[in-house]
């Protein structure tokens, strides 16, 4: 199944365009898609990390949960979905704490960062 991303300018204004992800797709210069990153911390203060699939870029490396927001999703809904897909943790949008963003011009990504304090 194809994956599509909504595109934005660097100020998060929608461009009214989508981009189909094919391999290591990168938007045109000045266009961005949203990526979410979720740092999951349990009640004992331990951080949950996952190991990347060996066939992916940076295969077998450790990471926090995250991924691209799909067309039609909000960033917070994408974060909830990615957290569940990658870890099985079911967070409510209200349980994710927004921490800020990083804009990466070379990859056309706007990374939003969240913290999830969960019981796992």
What would your notes on this structure say?
The protein is mainly beta. It has one helix and nine strands; from the N terminus they run E-E-E-E-E-E-E-H-E-E. The strands form three sheets. Strands 3, 4, 7, 8 and 9 form a five-stranded mixed β-sheet that branches. Strands 1-2 form a two-stranded antiparallel sheet. The chain has a two-stranded antiparallel ribbon with strand order 5-6. It is globular. The model has no long low-confidence stretch (mean pLDDT 96).
Topology:
Elements: E1 4-8, E2 14-20, E3 33-42, E4 47-48, E5 50-51, E6 62-63, E7 65-68, H1 75-87, E8 96-104, E9 109-118
Uncertain regions: pLDDT < 50 for 5+ in a row? none
Integer average pLDDT: 96
Distance between the termini: 31 Å
Described by strand count, sense and barrel closure, the largest sheet is: 5 strands, mixed
> What is the number of helices?
1
What's this entry about, in short?
This protein is mainly beta.
Write a concise keyword list for the protein shown above.
five-stranded mixed beta sheet
């Amino acid at each position: 199944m194809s994956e599509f991303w909504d595109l934005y300018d660097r100020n998060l204004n929608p461009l009214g365009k989508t981009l189909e992800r094919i391999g290591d797709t990168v938007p045109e210069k000045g266009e961005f898609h949203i990526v979410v990153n979720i740092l999951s911390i349990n009640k004992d203060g331990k951080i949950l990390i996952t190991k990347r699939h060996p066939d992916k870029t940076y295969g077998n490396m450790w990471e926090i949960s995250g991924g691209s927001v799909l067309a039609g999703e909000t960033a917070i809904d994408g974060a909830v979905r990615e957290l569940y897909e990658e870890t099985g943790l079911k967070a409510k949008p209200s349980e994710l704490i927004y921490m800020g963003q990083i804009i990466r011009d070379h990859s056309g990504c706007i990374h939003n960062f969240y913290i999830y304090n969960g019981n796992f």
